[in-house]
Amino acid sequence: MVSRSWYFAAIPALYHSPFLSGKNFNLFVRTICPSINAHIRKTKFSSMVKILNMSYLVHDSSRSLTARILTRLKDGLEVFIAPQTSFAVNCLAAISKCYHLRELNLIRATESLKSLSMRCKEVPATPNPDAVWPPHLKSLQVSGSFTNRTLDYFYSLPKTLTSFAIHDASTFDCEALIALLDVIGHGLESLHLGSGPAGYEYVTLSDWLQRLPNLQRLHIRLSASQIGHSLNIFDGRRRIYDSQNPHPLKQLKLVGFDLPIVQGVFDLVADGYLGCLRQVIIFRKTYFGTFSRHDKQNVHELDDLLRALAREDGAGASIDEEHAGAKVVQL
């Protein structure tokens, strides 16, 4: 017999980091998930599991069962090592609810993972040297709090990455982001920068594009403190692109900009630097006031130019005449 005191002392240690294999996995599931319905027969053991290592499982679980286990463990799970075959996108939804999770290992499960969206609540200052990104990752969206040091996590992103979005880039410096793009920017076709990093209102569009030679879609958002310097972005064009060798950028979205920048965009297109640009969308803040006649004329001329270029491209173009042009959206 075991005394009640020993029982209550030993159980949390036993469930802290259970060793799962084919032999004991079903028993673990029956204990943690006694019912498929998450609101029926909850068990007190689920909050005791802090480290869940499913890397030794091959065909013992299913994708739905893995998601159900993660949902049950969301209140206490801190480390998760994914299985090789029974992991899918629905598991990521369950992981997003594990608010205490500090380490996620998808090495065995990422062979087929091509798209990843993650919010980093708290990232260690020093990257784990053993951390590995999914080898075939094509699209990555990240949000949360980052510093210049934590950007080092992204230096090891695979060369397959074509779409990169940072929804809150206000917590690190522009120099750190430019250094990252020097490493991963060559293969990117889409870049989304939300809430720009400190100092990036002083970086010209040319500085961005020379690090992104294959970029086709660019989304830039200025914060309220950066708006007064928005015209700087369209100064200082580089001569590495011209009418004979234009940059391949096709779509440009600008958030928090005022209409005087339209003239700068028009000049870059007309001069051939952005000779492939076909669509410009400006999300304009209402506190800029009403449009001036000059601003309206600039938007109209840019719209005509982009549509005319799309008409010359022909029917097989990625952005046809119907979807080409310049548009202003009031926020």
Give an overview in words.
This protein is of the alpha/beta class and 331 residues long. Helix content is 26%, strand content 15%. The chain is built from eight helices and eleven strands. Strands 4-5-6-7-8-9-10-11 form an eight-stranded parallel beta sheet, covered by helices on one side. The chain has a three-stranded parallel beta sheet with strand order 1-2-3, with no helix packed on it. Helix 3 (63-72) packs parallel to helix 4 and helix 7 (261-270) runs parallel beside helix 8 (293-313). It is elongated, with a radius of gyration of 25 Å. It starts with a helix and ends with a strand.
Highlighted features:
single chain, alpha/beta, 15% strand, 11 strands, 8 helices, 26% helix, 331 residues, 3-stranded parallel beta sheet, elongated, 8-stranded parallel beta sheet
